[in-house]
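Milestone M4 deliverable, item 7.
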Amino acid sequence: MSFRLANVAGRAALVEGEHYYDLETSSGGSLTSDPMAALMAHAELHAVAAGLGDMDPTGSVADVELGSPVPSPRSVFAIGLNYADHAAESSMELPEVPLVFTKFPSCIVGADADVVLDSEAADYEAEVVVVIGDGGRDILAADAWDHIAGVTGGQDISDRALQFAAKPPHFDLGKSRDTYGPVGPVLVSTDLFDDPNAISIECRVNGEVRQSSSTASLIFDVPTLVEYLSSILTLHTGDLIFTGTPDGVGASKLMFLAPGDVIETSIGGVGDFANTCV
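Output delivered:
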């Protein structure tokens, strides 16, 4: 049985339709309420999810604010220029190997969180985010999806002025201001996707579609990224990989974010979330 894992007020919960079920309660106490501990037991979530039909829901998803399903990842990897159209709009050459930078984990917030703008050059970047389940070193691309607990959505909010304040650019700081990493709304197990290598992605700002693509267009697909990263360092449960953003970012047209803007992100098979800029 597939699962949708959520973070409701700091407690792990499984989502079924419009309702959520507290994980500790629905597992009969065999699993704790800690979302990070739930990821460590991701294989057991399938069995718990299969029994939700016999239980009363804890509440309605519409009535709660969702935190990041992975609130405190050990590492947050992000991949730059992983769509050819985004590289073109950025006037940059296509990378020959994955262009990897980090978002500091302190920037990670929930799907409903406000984005606090600290710059007049803040930008949006909708991304599909994969979450490591069973970590390891030297994972082969053919085995990569077996090491992924699930898929979620993310916004790689970027302060372009800070990002390019130095030469070479420091991507890490420019993309790690507080609240610059909304993630959610839920973590979806990989068995819910007909093709996990072709997940649709869309970003709207104030209702206007700015980005629309699919991970089928990635230069380096998810298995390649997992193999590459794990050939260099050990991946751990809960590590996030922001897989890259397609074309249509604000910097390409000097359409930066302003207070009051609403960023809507839609990830196929995962769901929608919205962040208000303040």
